[in-house]
Amino acid sequence: MAAGGVLDQLRVPVVQAPMAGGPSTPALAAAVSEAGGLGFVAAGYRTAAAVAAEIAAVRAATSRPFGVNVFVPSPDGADRGLLAGYVERVRREAAGYGAPTGEAAWSDDAWEEKLAVLVAERPAVASFAFGCPPPEVIERLGEAGVEVWVTVTEPQEAERAAAAGAGGLVVQGVEAGAHRGTFSDADGVGEVGLLTLLRLVTRVTALPLIASGGLCDGAGVAAVLVAGARAAQLGTAFLDTVEAGTPAAHRSALRGGRRTMLTRAFSGRRARGIVNGFLARNGAFAPSAYPHVNALTAPLRAAARERNDPEMLNLWAGQAYTAIDHDVPAATVVERLAREIDAALARREPLSAPPGSA
Ligand SMILES: Cc1cc2nc3c(=O)[nH]c(=O)nc-3n(C[C@H](O)[C@H](O)[C@H](O)COP(=O)(O)O)c2cc1C
Fold first, then answer.
1. Cis peptide before 18 (omega within 30 of 0)
2. Radius of gyration over every alpha carbon of the chain, rounded to an integer in angstroms
3. What φ, ψ does residue 313 adopt, rounded to 5°?
4. CA distances from 260 to 193, 254, 311 (A)
């Protein structure tokens, strides 16, 4: 399919962000696609077989296009000394909480197996985060009829993704909820505000851009459309919809007003979440060690979910989380965004004409 082909099929220029770790469900993806946007399956942290099953579940619920998102494996560059210190720290905290920890091991999150699922299942779009797939992978997917999008957080990443053959770029501003999609987790990389980033990326590529980060209403989506995006990708706005798999403790934190910040405390990779006890105690000590730290804290986070305890859980959220809808169907969010986008674009009036010249 030609670049931009899937975006051309959307009635509403809204993409539901893939949200690995629970919030993404087949029901959410299908509901957004049915409402005229583009739903996404999140393949991260899942087995390849589970991803194939989710794709089948979306297809059973809608014939509309949808996407699948996969994490590009991060190189195993963790500093062993720093990691060992953090493992000790988290183990002590978990012991006090009466919960287990996992082994702080590297994994490629079943990369090859998931690529095979994409080629076999042929979703309309495959999007990637944490890096750019090699050109031959992009080519293989293209031959299978799958449009490839790459998440970028700096103009340099956009240039690399364009050179590798990407068909679209998810331009992720620092306002975004959850992990930075940066190609590298070095401090300061990819910490640019969405509007600035979007304007800089339009200078280096003519690829279709999907703007993402901190968007909570149609006026914000209209702003990024005016600024050069073809669509907007929203995650946090769908976190408290009825179809989402977001844990109850996370949903209740979304109704509070605490600030968000970037932290490596839960996963070893910078991610934006609502500040809670675990983040505040451990954030300053967490090394850049993904996915090791993610595997380390996974059982602890599972225990917190079961106890309905928001203080030990990764409460991923974008900077605009206090403005989201609560406990509504995802279609209601898409419909509201569509109305607001229309209203925001319609109220633009020419500024160039001198007063009284109309
Ligand atoms: C809970 C949560 C999980 C996320 N998981 C993923 C993921 O698996 N893959 C990905 O590419 N982006 C993921 N993101 C980031 C989104 O793609 C998107 O950039 C972000 O949600 C945009 O900011 P917003 O949350 O303010 O709308 C996630 C976001 C949230 C809130």
1. no
2. 20
3. -110, 150
4. 15, 11, 14
What is the Å distance from ligand 1's center to 350 Cα?
35
- The atom number, within ligand 1, closest to the CA of 17 reads 17
Task: Say if ligand 1 is within 6 A of residue 215 CB.
Answer: yes
* DSSP assignment letter at 292: H
Q: Tell me which residue has its CA closest to atom 3 in ligand 1.
A: 19
Give the CA distances from residue 289 to residues 76, 152, 301, 352, in Å, rounded to whole numbers and listed in that order: 8, 20, 17, 52
Report the candidate in 4, 7, 131 with the shortest Cα–Cα distance to residue 72.
131
> Tokens in use for 133?
């797939």
> Which domains occur in the chain, in start order?
5-344 (3.20.20.70)
Structure-block tokens of residue 209 = 């851009």
CB 151 less than 6 A from any atom of ligand 1: yes
70 by Cβ neighbours in 10 Å (0-12 / 13-18 / 19+) ranks as buried
- 296-315 residue pLDDT tens: 999 999 999 999 999 999 99
pLDDT in tens, 2-41: 445 999 999 999 999 999 999 999 999 999 999 999 999 9
Name the strands in the sheet holding 260-263, side by side, starting at the edge strand that comes first in the sequence.
178-179, 271-274, 260-263
Question: For ligand 1, atom 7, which residue shows the shortest CA distance?
Answer: 19
Q: Considering only CA atoms, which of 196, 160, 161 is closest in space to residue 175?
A: 196
Q: Give the C-alpha separation, 286 to 19, whole Å.
A: 23
Nearest to 237 by CA among 332, 127, 150: 332
